[in-house]
Amino acid sequence: MIQAFIFDLDGVITDTAKFHFIAWQKLAQRLGFDIDHEFNEKLKGVGRMDSLNLILQHGGISLTEAEKENEAARKNDEYVELIADMNASDLLPGAREALEAIHAAGLKTGLASASKNAPAILARLGISDLFDTVVDARFVINGKPDPEIFLKGAAQLNLSVTECIGIEDAVAGLQSIKDAGMYAIGIGDPAVLTLADTVIDGLHQFDLKHYI
């Protein structure tokens, strides 16, 4: 019996990918190279430091750990500035309705996000009260595709993984869900999201009765 749905944030609830791309692109340009939208797809669902390492590898750049921390912090500051004006209009179609339907049915919701800014984003979107638990990069050792974040989400909801469904738009996130032992809903292209048990275009297509 399904008791909860655990959502990824970016690309599922809202779309901050454009802001991440701008901030990462600025970082790359400071270091003397560029990244494009095609490369940016590799960063979907990946944590900050892992994303930085992929970008540095792409540019053939080597930095000390201290330099990496400095660049990651600077990138995050620029990203936070970019998302400062987010509001409820930035919710993706169907997101609020899906969350409200789940709560109306007496079920629980969790968030499993690679972003340390997730709580602030939820507040700006006006949906903090629609989540029973939030697990972000501050609370896990291993980022996606490791299953830790979804395992912790289920644990914080006091549920087994078989009682939870994970919802993701990224391959790394779906790997995390499946390795956690959960049923996975993919958001996006079925040809790409082959790990998902079912795929929909977005939460505007989410129909709760199909899963409970």
TrEMBL record:
Give the enzyme's main class according to its UniProt record, as a single word.
Answer: isomerase
Task: Detail which positions bind substrate.
Answer: 8-10, 24, 43-48, 51, 75, 113-117, 144
Similarity comment: family membership: Belongs to the HAD-like hydrolase superfamily. CbbY/CbbZ/Gph/YieH family.
Query: What's the domain of life for this entry?
Result: Bacteria
Is-annotated flag, keyword Calcium? no
List, alphabetically, the InterPro entries matched.
B-phosphoglucomutase_hydrolase (IPR010976), Beta-PGM (IPR010972), Beta-PGM-like (IPR051600), HAD-like_sf (IPR036412), HAD-SF_hydro_IA (IPR006439), HAD_sf (IPR023214), PGP-like_dom2 (IPR023198)
Q: Which cofactor does it need?
A: Mg(2+)
According to the record, how does the cofactor bind? Binds 2 magnesium ions per subunit.
Species per Swiss-Prot/TrEMBL record: Ephemeroptericola cinctiostellae
Official protein name in the record: Beta-phosphoglucomutase
Q: Which residues form the active site?
A: D8, D10
Q: Where is this site: Important for catalytic activity and assists the phosphoryl transfer reaction to Asp8 by balancing charge and orienting the reacting groups?
A: S113, K144
Key words of the record: Carbohydrate metabolism, Isomerase, Magnesium, Metal-binding, Phosphoprotein
What Pfam families does the record point to? Hydrolase (PF00702)
Give residues annotated as binding Mg(2+): D8, D10, E168, D169
Question: Recorded GO terms, molecular function?
Answer: beta-phosphoglucomutase activity; magnesium ion binding
The UniProt record lists the EC number as 5.4.2.6
* This protein's record includes keyword Cell division: no
Q: Name one GO biological process term.
A: carbohydrate metabolic process
- Which reaction is catalysed here? beta-D-glucose 1-phosphate = beta-D-glucose 6-phosphate
